[in-house]
Design a protein that fits this description.
globular; two-stranded antiparallel ribbon; about 80 residues; 2 strands; alpha+beta; single chain; 3 helices; about 15% strand
């Protein structure tokens, strides 16, 4: 297990993506134990898992694993591009 806050938990720098557009808000939750209540509640099967929401709060897409291109595509979709 990596310690919380370790940059290796975020393999493709979500922070940089969020900084690229002031309308992107980044919220991260470190799941250290895959058997935790939070992991079970959200049925986490892979880490990282990224959920992208549109401006009105609707879920645009979920990315399981480290797929930066897919994250960028969903972000563009959420922004209406």
């Amino acid at each position: 297990n990596l310690p919380p806050g370790d940059k290796r938990r975020n393999p493709f720098a979500f922070e940089q993506l969020a900084k690229s557009d002031p309308e992107i808000a980044l919220r991260a939750v470190d799941i250290v134990d895959r058997g935790s209540a939070v992991a079970k509640q959200y049925k986490l099967t892979s880490i990282p898992r990224v959920e992208i929401y549109g401006r009105s709060g609707q879920l645009v897409g979920t990315v399981r694993g480290a797929n930066a291109d897919q994250v960028r595509q969903y972000v563009a979709q959420a922004q209406g591009r």
